[in-house]
Amino acid sequence: MKIGFVSGRTVEAALDQPWVTQRRIGRQAWQWKRTDLLVPGDRVPFPLSASHFGREGKAREGYFVGAMLGDGGMTSCTPEFHGDPSDGAVGFMREFAAEYGCGVREIPQGAIVRLRFPYRAGHRNPFTDCLRRFGVWGQRCDEKQLPDIRFSREFWIGCLSGLVDTDGCVRERVNPRGTKHGSVEFATVSPLLAVQVSDALLRLGVANRVRVDRRQRRPGHVVNGYAVMSRRPIHVVEISRATALVRLAGLLDLRIGYKASKLQKLVSTVGHVAPACSEMHGYDESVALDRVKSLSPIGVRRVHGVVVDRSGLFVVNGLVTGAGDDQRM
Q1: Which of 45, 74, 114, 226 is the most exposed place for a label (fewest CB within 10 A)?
Q2: Residue pLDDT, tens place only, 64-101
Q3: Can you tell me the distance from the alpha carbon of 206 to that of 243, in angstroms, rounded to the nearest whole number?
Q4: Are 259 and 165 in contact (CB under 8 A)?
Q5: Contact 321, 18 (CB under 8 A)
């Protein structure tokens, strides 16, 4: 079966694969449940403490890579960046270029500025070398992703800050009852990058979900004189839980002033909400719950069992599931 979850994760599992789920009626304690008995709405735990990181990369390098993945140009001969000339992201790029010995050529384009980072003729551009080092140079917008490298915790925090500063937004809302809440969202047309951002946030203890906005194609749509033949779906990583927003605000180092102040204002609004914690439920601040959204058969495939001592639990695609020990069923 292929199991889809509200968070956007998908897992393929055998029909007799055991899952840890929370009872939906009565005493909401944990119970074992096979894949073929799962139904939409079943809640499955996922950990917020799997903070495994490597040592590659620093915070400033992470912010540079994240900002370039968001509003940078990395497919021409010279790296480029587009942004508001008065905000902190453009200021950071100027400083970072000076550290690398690159020139900065600023070309006004309405309310934003186009920054180009040329280097001396006959020499390799250190900006380009930095982007190649982190495996992002030359990527198309729908194929953007970070390589499978064990980046440091500091690099990921810097990278997420750069991504939110460029392709992210902070939203404040009021529901019909008058309760104030909000969210931080990161949007991209690259499904691979959205999954990587979601995974990095989970390893930092920030619960989130990934949703897809499949934009409708409008016939005869023209932009700057060019006909738009297709519109790629937008993959949105959304952080909306109050405790997750508070934790995220404590991690990110946003350089665009209005986003940073809006996030702090949002945190002051929802910061009083305590994390779910109950001895009866059997989970604490380091565990959150995902929900089954869909189940569909995918045919016959070879499967492999996993044996885990003591708890009999392991994590797959960020979700807690059970090992293949029939004695626990």
Answers
A1: 226
A2: 999 999 999 988 888 999 999 988 999 999 999 999 88
A3: 8
A4: yes
A5: yes
